[in-house]
Amino acid sequence: MELRCEGCAGCCVDWRPLDPGAAGSDRTGPRPPLDDVYDLAPLTRDEIAGFVADGLADALAPRLFEPAERDDSVRIDGVDLAAVDDRPVFVVGLRKPPKPVAPIGTDEPRWLDACVFLDPTTLQCRIHGSDRYPDTCSSYPGHNLELGAETECERVETAGGGDRLLDDEPPDDLPAPAFGPQALGATVFAYPDPDDLDGVVARLRDGDTTADDRARFAGAAVGSRPGSLSVARDRMAEARERVREADSWVGAAVREWTDRAGEDGDRVALDATAPDSHDPDTSSPDARDRLVREVEDDAGAPGTPGWGE
């Protein structure tokens, strides 16, 4: 498998406002997600615990699912959820706030939902190559290739983005699929206390989750035991507290981007990025780059090496 990723960000950005053909392309299973986040990358239990330990738990986002045919289900907030033994099943991924990005095929920055770790200037991942870089991201699109499913690389190519998937042979060292039979307690979790989710499910469906909502799920994931429904209550409680206390550059950036953003797909106007600037070019790369430095880099975000490295 060989990819050309420079200037693309196809698997990190929500393309739907610019390319209606992208709608549904990230839905890879029979269970529709309850939320509308595009291309959420499931994390393993150990990866979630790593983000929590590093104080980056404010990067995490839970996902619940509607039941597929013949699935067990549980009803909360008037919503039927896929369940195991009356416990809603969920995964945890990375949040995708709106960011001023200009991925392949766009001639100027637009407000598009993008991974919290995507640098809008370089279109590189800020944690690529680090211990926190998720297996799902490092192995993409290996599982798609193995299953003969469309990849974001191919979708970008079709949209005129140039050659992206240079070698379509799946790697030999693919990790286990996120939704395989071994997934319970490892990447797919069962929430242990469904009665505590009144109101939470509705907020998750509407994209209005609170820090406490996200802490509930992240803690339950960290406390889970692979291959079982059991949850270590002490470990869950400790993780929940650390998630609630998380206040990293990621959380600050999510709040700032959300406050500044226009509508999905809107051109980024200068008054939304640098209100005190007199630069007459309202979409100049310099203006956008200054904003990225202010919101992410100056707040402590790790840098990216550039494509020449």
**Regions with pLDDT < 50 over 5+ consecutive residues?**
272-282
Biggest pleated-sheet summary? 5 strands, antiparallel
General form:
globular
Category by helix and strand content? alpha+beta
What number of domains? 1
Work out the helicity level: 25-40%
Distance N to C terminus: 20 Å
- Mean model confidence by pLDDT: 87
Strand content: 5-15%
C-alpha-based Rg, rounded: 19 Å
Number of helices: 9
Order of helices and strands: EHEEEEEEHHHEEHHHHH
* Number of β-strand runs: 9
Organism: Halorubrum trapanicum
Biased composition (Basic and acidic residues): 260-269, 276-294
Protein name: Fe-S-cluster containining protein
InterPro entries: DUF7531
Give a short overview.
The chain has 309 residues and is of the alpha+beta class. The protein has 9 helices and 9 strands.
Structural overview:
With 309 residues, this protein is α+β, with helices and mostly antiparallel strands. The protein has one domain (2-245). The chain is built from nine helices and nine strands. The protein has helices at residues 45-53, 135-138, 142-147, 152-158, 200-206, 211-223, 233-245, 249-260, 285-297, and strands at 2-3, 60-64, 73-76, 79-84, 87-94, 98-101, 110-113, 165-167, 189-190. The strands form three sheets. Strands 2, 3, 4, 5 and 9 form a five-stranded antiparallel sheet that branches. A two-stranded antiparallel ribbon has the order 1-8. A two-stranded antiparallel ribbon has the order 6-7. Helix 1 crosses helix 6 (211-223) and helix 6 (211-223) runs antiparallel to helix 7. The chain is globular, with a radius of gyration of 19 Å. The two termini are 20 Å apart. Mean pLDDT is 87; it is low at 272-282.
